[in-house]
Automatic annotation (TrEMBL):
Pfam families in the record: OmpA
Organism listed in the record: Sphingobacterium suaedae
Top-level taxon in the UniProt lineage: Bacteria
Keyword Transmembrane among UniProt keywords: no
Designated name of the protein: OmpA family protein
Amino acid sequence: MKNTHIWTKAALVLAVSMVGLPAPSLCQSLFNKVKARAESAATSKILNETDKAVSKGIDKAIESASSPNNQSSTPQQQVPAKDTKLATSSTSPLLSFSKYDFIPGDSVIYSRDFATDVIGELPVGWNSNGSSVVVRVDKVPGHWLRLAQRSVVLSDNEQGLGQNFTVEFDLILDIDFKGWMPPSLQFGLIASGDKSPTANALLNEQRGDKSLYMEISPQSTSGTYTLESNEKYTRYFNSAAKTDPRVKNWYGRIAHVALHVQQERVRIWIDGEKLYDAPKGIAKNGEFNQIFFKVSSSPYADEQIGMYINHLKIAKGAASPRQRLLEGGSFSTTGIHFDSGSSRIKPESTGVIKSIADILKENTALGLLIVGHTDNTGDAEHNLLLSKQRSAAVKELLVAAYGIDRNRLTTDGKGESAPLASNNTPVGKAQNRRVDFMKQ
């Protein structure tokens, strides 16, 4: 990937080169183009440096990110691909999230990262008709649920999700391509009706009162996907299968999946790209109460197929940062994600942070206090420091990537001292890991 710099530096070089040009309007036009092209690339640099910045000085991080001698880019977490030809896309993670407009719901109702589940076993409370088990993945942190071929997996959620909610999870597709078709992967939602959402009957038939699923069919150099919904046993919505070369960029690495359901409307993003926005994609009646994962069969041996999920989170309600901040005076979000135990911001946080930047740009007199919070995992003193580091990282990204005046932003951290929910459950912990924005 070509070396790129923060737009201000690129603009300075351009300004010097334009000395003597007679047309100011033309110069300004070129300046804006350079700014627009360099801005998203610079953002990725900043994300990679913020973790260092909190301990070594924010300004030094910005200098490092903008230096022409710094040729590194934010690496994407990878798993070893069995076929060395399946190289991860060289595109920086944040670049693929530069237009990401997903904002998660504001009230977490389900969360699972398998951290306390036993390796080699199905997660406690989950149901399956195959051999899906929790595993560790080489060079990738955490516990992951490996989805088995010829099987369906149901979560242990038993509550209704309402009519307005979001779903997020991380996905790894690691396939040893040998020339024939690997199995397809379905992930989707079920309204179980009069059945329990974990009932065995749903392992054989996922349509329930209504259902929605996206199916991904991997290919060695691309892949296809489709979206379908059903009302009881009748198809309600269907999109034609799309062949997309971007699918290969999801192989051998962590891809982030997000869904937003608003009554009949459904939107789906993978790695920051909006793949679907169907205004009438879901039947009105019925309430979703289950998420499922299904892997088909194939000629491949099980050890040649690696399909893994982690960090599943469902949140209710569509948070509106603009309304919350401007009318209510504060906005709290669990949608800014950090690497575990770190202040390094994950690229899927872009949608929320960009929405805050847009509000600040539209309201130039507005100042914000940014406050980080953690759950109670680990040492309280460390959590306090970490929460301060994370709020500082958010501030620096707003300043460096979106041009917000740093004097309009102050930061603080409360660690684990101000929980919104009990830290005794995964849902409570997820709700407590948050960032607050308050007018000042």
